[in-house]
Specification:
A seven-stranded parallel beta sheet has the order 3-4-5-8-9-10-11, with helices on one face. Strands 1-2 form a two-stranded antiparallel ribbon. A two-stranded antiparallel ribbon has the order 6-7. The protein is globular, with a radius of gyration of 18 Å. Helix 1 crosses helix 2, helix 3 crosses helix 4 and helix 7 packs across helix 8. Helix content is about 35%, strand content about 15%. The protein is of the alpha/beta class and about 290 residues long. It is built from ten helices and eleven strands. The longest helix has 15 residues.
Length: about 290
């Protein structure tokens, strides 16, 4: 296995991770053999940061990770997410925001991954879209959730706490809990969370955006279609996606990426983002792109 980390490294709490990791959600839709091939290739190419959740399938993705990589390398950092659960219904997810739900999800992750401790667990809030929005008994104060995660950390079941889909005010409220990362929607054309990114940088918190290339989910537009991006990709002989991801890495040195794919070829393309060099002129052009 290579010792080089794609994109270099940043700190994720007590861990050192590659700035280009791997989001495993799409592996829900492939068999174990295909998932194993992608996961092992990612690790072979220096990826040591995997993002998963027990509700990616009925622990399907966790089981793929375990089948492919267990026993895990000492430097592999598996990050999970709590706040939802898988259900057999037309909408396959239901919120699970209550403290006892969070604890149950952590135990489900530990069992399905074959771990004694989850390195990092992200609390996914549901105060706003995309996705389900909390109501009724799922309206839980963030302090109650953090108290449960701190208890799990004190018990040694999780190593560190992250946040996802949160507001600036919630991030500020949570800082005393010792937050190590934030996952929020962010891209070249959606910089509405720029204040949160700056707050993370100030507090040495890793910023790990989701939807960096847009998403069909909720019809979120893709920055890869922007003419500035497309022109720059032609000039640098690379892909529009690589330009958009390289901009995120260059924009702030507290950022990391977790692009997902089911394809080894696409995985290798994503990791080649690390080779894209944006000079001052290119960065200025991209910085001037208007957010939407």
């Amino acid at each position: 296995m290579t010792s080089q980390r794609p994109g270099g490294t940043i700190k994720l709490g007590p861990y050192e991770i590659a700035r280009i990791g791997y989001g495993a959600m799409q592996l829900e839709h492939v068999d174990t053999a295909a998932a194993t091939a992608v996961l092992r290739r990612a690790v072979e190419l220096g990826v040591n940061h995997l993002d998963t959740a027990s509700f990616y399938g009925h622990t399907t993705v966790n089981q793929h990770i375990r089948a492919a990589l267990h026993p895990y390398a000492d430097d592999l950092v598996i990050v999970s997410k709590v706040g939802a659960r898988r259900v057999d219904a037309p909408v396959p997810l239901a919120l699970a925001q209550r403290p006892e739900d969070l604890r149950a999800q952590v135990h489900l992750d530990l069992t399905s991954l074959g771990l004694d401790q989850l390195p990092v667990v992200n609390l996914r809030r549901a105060d706003q879209g995309p996705g389900l929005i909390a109501e009724g008994d799922q309206l839980v104060p963030i302090d109650d959730q953090l108290a449960e995660l701190i208890a799990l950390r004190n018990e040694g079941l999780i190593g560190a706490i992250g946040l996802s889909n949160i507001s600036t005010a919630q991030l500020q409220q949570a800082l005393p809990a010792g937050i190590v990362c934030v996952q929020n929607a962010y891209s070249l054309i959606n910089r509405s969370a720029e204040e949160q990114l700056r707050l993370c940088a100030t507090n040495d918190i890793a910023w790990i955006p989701y939807f960096p290339l847009g998403s069909a989910f909720d019809q979120i537009p893709s920055p890869t279609e922007h003419p500035v991006v497309r022109d720059l990709a032609k000039r640098l002989d690379t892909t529009p996606a690589a330009i958009c991801l390289a901009w995120i890495l260059a924009h702030n040195n507290h950022t990391a990426l977790i692009p997902g794919t089911r394809s080894i070829d696409h995985l290798e393309d994503n990791l080649r983002t690390a080779d894209v060099e944006l000079d001052e002129t290119a960065l200025a052009e991209l910085d001037a792109v208007v957010s939407v």
